[in-house]
Amino acid sequence: MIPKNGYTYAVSRLKAMANRLLDNNSIIRLWESETFSSAMKLLSETHYAQWLSEMKNENDFESLISSELNYVVSETRSISPDKRIPILFQLPFDFHNIKVLVKDKITRTGNQGRRIDLLTSLGNVSVEDLILAVESEDYRLLPFGLHAVLPESLSIWEQSHDVLMVEKRLDAALFELMKSIAESIEIEGVKKWVRAKIDAENIRNVLRLVRFGLEIGKISSFLHEGGFISKEKLLLLVNEPLEGWGRLVGFADAAMALSEITDFSDTEKSLTELEKSLDDYVTGVLGPYRYDAFAPENILAFLWAKDIEAKNLRIILVGKANDVDKDVIRGLLRNVL
Q1: How far is CA 18 from its chain centroid?
Q2: Other C-beta atoms lying within 10 Å of the C-beta of residue 57
Q3: Which of 154, 199, 209, 282 is most buried per CB count within 10 Å?
Q4: Which CATH number fits the domain that encloses residue 170?
Q5: How many domains does the chain have?
Q6: What DSSP designation does 34 have?
Q7: Residue 282 has pLDDT above 90, yes or no
Q8: Among residues 296, 307, 302, which one has the least CA distance to residue 82?
């Protein structure tokens, strides 16, 4: 185990890189801009300017965001004494890519091309290696147990033709892997972050599956062990109106996320608000560690804050491009560390 003071250099470097995180004033200025063009002009006056040359056209803001995220992840990985911390952060992107490729493989017909536009380069495994493995059906060299999970997911589809079952297997594999890595790292804040991520996914699943009309037994099979809230407590939410969920999990910090929902009558709006508040809940788990100059949790906190920044930028820029009301955009923005 790396001693706590073994992270001093890495955390100091991250403090020096703090200017790569847009502060709240910058986010507010972007939100207050009147048009998409004015928002992009403001963004071009920040460190995102170095990625302008990679834009395919004036609306290709995703390349700016992805390039910045990739740079930060690469830099953080290079200075982290324990590479498992950035690996842990990147794992959800790996599984996102696997979901995209599996769904593409099972739904593609005839001579249709692959939907590689939905893939991200933020994972641990290169997009090229994943595509090659899926296309050649040779999974032997894939790490993190993916060599077994990927073909198993395709087998589940062949047997059930149920995309939800495929997603369930992939999500279960992701969280089992994240829990295993977090336990091996033995850093308290890292373990708490994983537990909060599991809580957030479980709450999303309950709401989503209730809307699909699934019975409680099936919903239970989609919930993951290891969060702060037990599966038994989560299952009490199934037959409870959404406005009562916060009361049922009132002992947990996640109750704050549920309390921020303002409109329980509109399911789509409440789901959107829940996504925002759950991200803020996960952010809050890492918040206390930023006041400790030597805390190794600062490495994960920096990466997570950058990911939240990327979400905020997408919300603002998509909203501006589609003339969405400012108040609607403001309600979707996540808090940052």
Answers
A1: 21
A2: 7
A3: 199
A4: 1.20.1690
A5: 1
A6: S
A7: yes
A8: 296
CB atoms within 10 A of CB 61: 23
pLDDT digits (tens, 9 = 90+) for 154-163: 999 999 999 9
The mean pLDDT of 294-320, rounded to a whole number, is: 95
- Note whether residue 203 is domain-resident: no
Residue 337's Cβ-count burial label (10 Å; 0-12, 13-18, 19+) is middle
Cα of 302 vs its chain's centroid, Å:
14
pLDDT(246) > 80? no
What is the arithmetic mean of pLDDT over 245-261?
A: 69
Q: Inter-axis angle of helices 84-107 and 188-212, to 10 degrees? A: 20
- Pick the closest to residue 177 from 84, 254, 99 (CA basis): 84
In a domain, 179, yes or no: yes
Please state, in angstroms and rounded to a whole number, the distance separating the CA atoms of residues 207 and 271. 8
Tell me which DSSP letter residue 282 carries.
H
Measured between alpha carbons, how far is 272 from 274 in angstroms, rounded to an integer?
5
Q: Which domain holds residue 157?
A: 84-186
pTM (global) more than 0.85: yes
> Could you write out the DSSP letters of every residue in 192-255?
HHHHHHHHHHHHHHHHHHHHHT--HHHHHHT--TTSSS-HHHHHTTTTS-GGGHHHHTTTSTHH
Q: What is the mean pLDDT of residues 82-98?
A: 96
- Look at 136-140, 245-249, 258-262 and tell me which has the smallest mean pLDDT: 258-262
Flag whether 237 is in a domain. no
Has residue 148 been placed in a domain? Answer: yes
CB 150 within 8 A of CB 174: no
